[in-house]
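CO-FOLDING WORKSHEET

Operator: S.A.
Ligand of interest: NAP
Run index: 252
Mode: holo prediction, single chain
Checklist:
[x] sequence pasted
[x] SMILES validated
[ ] output reviewed
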Amino acid sequence: MTNTIALITGANRGLGYETARLLGERGMTVFLGCRDEERAGVAAADLRAAGHDAHPLHLDVTDEKAVQAAAETIERTHGRLDVLVNNAGIGGFAESGGPSQTPLSAIRRVYETNVFGVVAVTNAMLPLLRQAPAARIVNVSSEVGSLTTMTDPGSPLAQLQATVPYPSSKSALNMLTVMYARELADTRILVNAANPGYCATDFNGNTGYRTAEAGASVSVHLATLDADGPSGLLWGDQSMSHRTDTSGPLPW
Ligand SMILES: NC(=O)c1ccc[n+]([C@@H]2O[C@H](COP(=O)([O-])OP(=O)(O)OC[C@H]3O[C@@H](n4cnc5c(N)ncnc54)[C@H](OP(=O)(O)O)[C@@H]3O)[C@@H](O)[C@H]2O)c1
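OUTPUT RECEIVED:
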């Protein structure tokens, strides 16, 4: 029986690291796609010390050549990819005022990672994903990208300060999820977006009230869906909204 091969982008810390750890615990061979080779090496060594089959992989999602090189490495070593978790993301909150005060450069910077980076990585990895018997693509999104939630007067998220770069990048990522799922509907590849919930990571100065492990478990769920699992959904924990149930499909 051959190993399941997984690539997680932005895996040296936060939710990406936890996702790699949890998939490693399930016996998968995990590639930690990281833009900083030293941090990637440290993270992979930590996971190997815990008994996981973990490998650092240089991958800046905004660098198309690095993305292509990463795909070539996986092609050369394994010839296929079973799980892709597009996790790398940035907030860009420091540069984000209200929409009317936001420089285009701030929006472009966030989109380069959160939107264009996902397209670059997914397209580079798709030939490898097509070689797998039942590949899974997980796009790590957020409920703040949900137009329904952000316009629901009953949702605490609708009370957040109006900003453009991050929420709109996740809305775009949600639509990417829908479109990839549609294109790949006649394959065995399932494509879904994960909402990890508000998790304590560097992303928010560790103010989140969920653990990184709890957030990562949403990606793990979508990365390990059965063959009859859903495709083209935003899925996850609902604890930051006004709803009381815990996990399931979320509105777009
Ligand atoms: N934490 C939350 O509450 C929360 C909620 C909803 C959604 N999310 C989403 O979850 C994902 C992970 O967030 P997190 O909380 O784990 O954030 P984090 O702790 O800030 O970690 C982000 C990771 O992404 C990597 N990264 C950023 N730009 C990259 C690039 N161009 N190429 C490769 N890697 C890059 C970072 O690498 P470096 O170490 O090199 O910077 C880091 O490993 C993001 O997509 C975020 O939007 C988080």
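REVIEW:
The pocket of NAP is lined by residues 9-10, 12-16, 34-36, 39, 59-62, 87-90, 113, 117, 140, 142, 196, 198-199, 201-204, 208 (CB under 6 Å).
The mean pLDDT is 94.
[x] output reviewed
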